[in-house]
Amino acid sequence: MTVSEIVTTAYLVRHGAIPEVVRAGWSGEAPLTRGTSVVVETSRGPELATVLELVRPNGSAPTPDPESLFPILREASEADRTTAREQTRRARDEFSKWTQRITEWNLDLQLIDLEWTLDSSRFVLYVLNERGPECTKLALQAAAAGYGVVDVQPVSSDGLVTVPVEKKGGGGCGNCGSH
Description:
Blueprint: H1 3-6, E1 9-15, E2 20-26, E3 37-42, E4 45-54, E5 70-75, H2 78-104, E6 110-116, E7 123-128, H3 133-144, E8 150-156, E9 159-160
Parallel strand pairs: 2-5, 7-8
Antiparallel strand pairs: 1-2, 1-4, 3-4, 3-5, 6-7, 8-9
């Protein structure tokens, strides 16, 4: 079954340690209300998100293509919220260790936050920088040091430094299109 066959309603949802607003599709019977916690399958994997608003079609904006929506997997359970709280504590504990690693690796980056996806399959480092070689070096150094695939997400004073959106990508940081 494809997303277009199951998605019935589009919502704006906010997710991530450095918040990002995306369009997500819900196939559940009951409508979602503002503030509802949901689990969304983002390009990084499952993440806890908050429903902001129903996407309403208007004359100037077409109805969203169901294939362009991130699927809302379910309303968040207490177990999902507990996992998210534990990961927030874990991130707080890891922050100084990652700051030290960045310093030891002589990278011109400033770590501002970090997080895991809800299933702990992806790890994201948010750094104050434009997308470029220092981000790529951090991802490569982390992999070489045995930390696995680490997504390095640059953040500027305008917010997240974006790359082309893919439904499910590789990892790291840079311009190779694997993000």
